[in-house]
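Table S2 (continued). Query chain:
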Amino acid sequence: MTVGYIIERYSDMSGGYACRRLAEEGRKLGMDMHIVGTLDCLVEDGTLISGGAELGRADIAFLRRRRGAVRDTVCALAGRIYNSRDRFDRYISKAAQLADLKTSNMEVPRYTVGSGEECFRRAAEKLGLPLVAKGLEGSRGDEIFLIESEDDFMKLSGRFGPEKEWLFEEYYPGSRGTDLRLFSLRGEAVACMRRTNPYDFRANYAQGASVSAVPVTPEMKDIAEDVWRSTGLDIAGIDLLDGKDGHVFCEVNVMPGIKGIESCTGINIARACLLMASEDMRHGRA
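Corresponding output:
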């Protein structure tokens, strides 16, 4: 039987949709999937302890936890990780995504990365106001802000501190409160949904956006392949804005949620992820 780990914050994440679905679908496929919470583990003389017992090796693991010594020790126990630790750690950064992305199938926004007032002023001069400020490793829309004036940025700097690095991007008003989430498995566009939030310029599902299914187009298939070739991410949630002439790259999520996209498309995303891992094992791909 295939043994797999779902690496998360806590071991009791059965209420978390993605963890629960991976465990459920794993059982149906004859896989023994365990949620391993890094905050519930410790490393003792090089041995990983979870629930008072040594944690053994696993065939596969799905990585849904950010950097840490305990997390890395759990990763070392798995034969194959989705996404791989090095790619996960690099592309959790929105700046790295933009630096490495190579595509001719969508528009890529102009941007500036840095910290402090001078960086903001240069970004505002280059991109114009309003602009969007993003924390480099924020998720679920929790560090995305619409900056309409220097005063807005000064308040932001006061809240997070002057040394925090920001990704400043040009603002696309046609995509206010709406975007597309494209779910990709190793460059294959599996499903797509539109997220809409009439009360916020952010369209994240976690921020209360409603979702509806969108057919996957040939253009989306090309975009998914471009992102995969640029990043090597096995699993990617690709966010696209609406530009005047088509899709605009927003960002890639290296640990995308699946609740919204499963609910509106009816596509079994959890099963598709596990089948990808199963095929890798069957063909001996490490």
